[in-house]
């Protein structure tokens, strides 16, 4: 598994595990497929922000 802190590791259609805003304290991972990449910079220490196909938004913690 790759880390989700580099934008180059994430592609539209990738299966990823993200942490939603409301789950940041618990660290609960939500799995889904990337619809859009929202972070413009090449890297982010807390993970690249993406939108899943179901519309949920969070930061990528793992790439499957």
What features would you describe in this structure?
With 64 residues, the chain is an all-beta fold. It has a single domain (7-63), classed as SH3 type barrels (Roll). It has strands at 15-20, 30-37, 49-52, 57-63. The relative contact order is 0.38. Pfam families: DUF2196 (PF09962).
- Distance N terminus to C terminus? 6 Å
Average pLDDT, to the nearest integer? 94
Helix content: under 10%
Give the overall shape, derived from the CA principal axes.
Answer: globular
Biggest beta-sheet profile: 4 strands, antiparallel, barrel
Count all strands and give the number: 4
Calculate Rg over CA atoms. 10 Å
Low-confidence regions: none
Order of helices and strands: EEEE
Task: Write a brief structural summary.
The protein is mostly beta strands and 64 residues long. It has strands at 15-20, 30-37, 49-52, 57-63.
Topology:
Blueprint: E1 15-20, E2 30-37, E3 49-52, E4 57-63
Antiparallel strand pairs: 1-2, 1-4, 2-3, 3-4
Organism: Methanolobus halotolerans
Pfam family, one: DUF2196
Protein name: YwbE family protein
What keyword list fits this structure?
mainly beta; globular; 64 residues; SH3 type barrels
């Amino acid at each position: 598994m790759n880390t989700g802190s580099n934008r180059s590791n994430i592609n539209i259609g990738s299966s990823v595990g993200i942490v939603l805003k409301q789950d940041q304290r618990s660290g609960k991972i939500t799995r889904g497929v990337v619809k859009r990449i929202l972070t413009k910079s090449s890297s982010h220490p807390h993970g690249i922000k993406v939108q899943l196909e179901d519309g949920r938004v969070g930061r990528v913690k793992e790439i499957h």
